[in-house]
Amino acid sequence: MIDIQKVFRSFWFAWQGILDLFRYENNAKVHLLVAIVVIAVGFWLQFTVTEWAIVLTQIGLVWSAEAVNTAIERLCDVVSPGHHPTIGKVKDMAAGAVLILATMAVVVGLLVIGNKLLTRFWV
């Protein structure tokens, strides 16, 4: 049997984690601002359903990667409060994963938005 209270409690904790991510993490705030701009541009350019699916998936992936990176960094800080070269590498790799994903999201965004701008204004 499913314990509904436990399910709701899990969602509550997850929601709190999301709020904390955007409240306290500077990079997450940057990702949020960029997402708002891209969504506004999407409405202005009248994205198709497919374009929305692609762009929103990219936004969700970047936010998720940022959340995992933040969790890894916080865990590392608890496990090794002082400087430790291996912990430093772990944190760098987690941050690198976000950078890779964010870079690809920018490329995808430029492809979608660039294509819309080309067809709207030059073709």
UniProtKB/TrEMBL annotation:
Statement: the UniProt record of this protein carries the keyword Nucleotidyltransferase: no
One Gene Ontology term, aspect cellular component: plasma membrane
Similarity section: Belongs to the bacterial diacylglycerol kinase family.
Cofactor(s) it depends on: Mg(2+)
Protein name per the record: Diacylglycerol kinase family protein
Keyword terms: ATP-binding, Cell membrane, Kinase, Lipid biosynthesis, Lipid metabolism, Magnesium, Membrane, Metal-binding, Nucleotide-binding, Phospholipid biosynthesis, Phospholipid metabolism, Transferase, Transmembrane, Transmembrane helix
Cofactor note: Mn(2+), Zn(2+), Cd(2+) and Co(2+) support activity to lesser extents.
Residues the entry annotates as binding substrate: 66
Predominant localisation class: membrane
Residues that bind ATP: 25, 73, 91-92
Membrane topology: Multi-pass membrane protein
InterPro entries per UniProt: DAGK, DAGK_sf, UDPK
Transmembrane segments: 30-47, 93-113
Gene3D superfamilies: 1.10.287.3610
Binding locations of a divalent metal cation: 25, 73
CDD domains linked: UDPK_IM_like
Gene Ontology process terms (BP): phospholipid biosynthetic process
Catalytic-site annotation from UniProt: 66
UniProt key word Transferase: yes
GO molecular function, a single term: metal ion binding
